[in-house]
Amino acid sequence: MTNLTTKNSCNLCEIILEGLSDGKALDLKVFEVRDMTTIADYMVIATGTSTRQVKALSQRVSTLVKDAGYLVHGIEGEMGYEWVLVDAGDVLVHIMHPDTRAFYQLERLWEGHVGT
């Protein structure tokens, strides 16, 4: 049986993924992490082709989340737009420049540990 929290975080994740896809984000990865951490239910990683696109994607995600009635708890990385973290509560969204994503390989932390 699906509880309300699961349904809400799943819906929120779908909204975010649709916004990232519509904004032409590349290499979208979604990790369900609720059984591994208490900080979020989902971790989303996406690539923007330039710092300008990373900025636009982070703003798009933030707007869509708020318009859907969810809270954005914080946004980090807005100075250089190499790696922006949008904290949407149950969903953490990492939007990264290609070079930054290749360097940090963030998804390697989660691959093999959770289903994608």
Q: What can you see in these coordinates?
A:
The chain is α+β, with helices and mostly antiparallel strands. It has one domain (4-109): Beta Polymerase, domain 2 (2-Layer Sandwich), CATH 3.30.460.10. Helices cover 37% and strands 23% of the residues. It has three helices and five strands; from the N terminus they run αββαβββα. The chain has a five-stranded mixed beta sheet with strand order 1-2-5-4-3. α1 runs antiparallel to α2. The protein is globular.
What is the CATH architecture term?
2-Layer Sandwich
Low-confidence stretches: 1-6
Q: Judging from the principal axes of the Cα atoms, what is the shape?
A: globular
Count of domains: 1
**Topology-level CATH name:** Beta Polymerase, domain 2
Written as H for each helix and E for each strand, in order along the chain, the element string is: HEEHEEEH
| Annotation field: number of helices | 3
CATH class: Alpha Beta
Percent range of helical residues: 25-40%
Radius of gyration: 13 Å
